[in-house]
Amino acid sequence: MGLPTRFQANHLHAIAHRLFMAAGTPQPISDFVAHILVNANLAGHDSHGIQFLPMYLDRIEAGGITPAVEPVIARETATTLLVDGKGGFGHYTIRQALYWAIDKAKERDVCCVNFTGLTHMGRLGEFAELAVAADCMVILTSGGGSKNSGNVTPFGGAQPALSTNPIAVGVPTGNDEPFILDFATSIVAGAKVRVAHNKGIDVPEGWIVDKHGNPTTNPADFEEGGGYLLPFGGHKGYALALLVCLLGGLAGNFDVARASMGGAFLQVINIDSFSPLTDYQEGVRAFLNGLRSTPPAPGFDSVQVPGDFERRSRRERLAHGIEVPEPVCKRIEEWATKLDVSLSEAEREAANIDRYQATS
User: Is 205 helix (H, G, I), strand (E, B) or coil?
Assistant: First the structure.
């Protein structure tokens, strides 16, 4: 009997957790990466959620992720860190680096971090949410570019030269509605096209072009046909994508011969270094609530600010479950058979039943 296609969050977490552990991932790392994936689904970003589970298992098998390693600090100053992820889970590396950076920022006002040995880290907004829980502001970027590679064309270009190069920012507000900005500098994340492909639906106009540079709405032209994504906002999104490359390249992640540069960059700011935290948070809340009170334009129900969509999605999906496309379920079942892992809902961990309680 196959898997259902709608899951409670704690069931999805249990599936991912058990599969990662069966593939050689230690319990704490497995638990965290599983939570990051499920949290992305809950936030409404299925592109960065459980659909990555089979891909990560593929990479572990192929040697692209070393699941049991811990990141280390390769070099540091009073206000900087160079963190080596050693090819382990990028999610876990970013979390550890974030905690180290928060400690430094609390002591030295600010901390900037670059990385080597970093693998895919999933949705950046997850880490912005972790930082605001520590009452810090965070800026996180990740991506790269190289001549004739990637899946995003430069503005005015007929061939790809960039990745999707996302940027995330988190600002604490003193309540459960932090400001969480998280977007790709391409018109959309490539994994969102994969979601449409898995569901068998077209994507909106302006997202992708086929391999000849012609506009298309068929996700197969991207997923199977060698097509490309476009930068958002034309030359402006393109310029931001280049900034992501330059920040990531600070750690020496560049190759002159290949004309490539990229990587991840993290900055944590101690708000108390500039303004009393509670005063600043009060000001931020007033500012954001003022924007929300703006009368909506025709066709809109309300004015939102970054983070509102994710909170509403989380409440709805905790209550009603998470829909997973059949092709993803099939790949999960294949891995469960291969690793001899039960996918039964009865084996959910008690701690995660509490972790994913629905809220009103």
Answer: coil
**170 and 78 in one domain?**
yes
Q: Quote the CA–CA distance of 214 and 195 in Å, as a whole number.
A: 21
pLDDT of 224 over the 50 cut: yes
pLDDT tens figures, 176-222: 999 999 999 999 887 788 888 888 899 998 898 888 888 899 999 98
With bands split at pLDDT 50, 70 and 90, how would you rate the model's confidence at 351?
Answer: low
The answer to whether residues 139 and 285 belong to one domain is: yes
Distance of CA 68 to the CA centre of its chain: 21
CB-CB contact of 284 with 173 (8 Å): yes
| Residue range of the domain that includes 47 | 1-68+318-360
What residue type is 196 in one-letter code?
A: A
pLDDT at 225 over 80: no
Write the CATH number for 341. 1.10.1530.10
Contacts (Cβ under 8 Å, ≥6 apart) of 317: 9, 41, 42, 44
CA atoms of 179 and 173, how far apart (whole Å):
7
* CA distance readout (Å), 348 to 16, 328, 336: 11, 20, 15
269-292 mean pLDDT: 97
The one-letter code for the residue type at 39 is N
pLDDT at 360 over 70: no
Residues 93 and 129 in one domain: yes
Per residue in 82-95, pLDDT (tens digit) is 999 999 999 999 99
Strands 110-116 and 322-323: unpaired
- Report the domain count for the chain: 2
- 172 and 57 inside one domain: no
- The enclosing H or E element of 338 equals helix 326-339
Same domain, 156 and 46: no
Within a domain: residue 297? no
Place of tokens 């990745």: 163
Structural domain includes residue 153: yes
Nearest CA to 208 out of 190, 184, 181 is that of 190
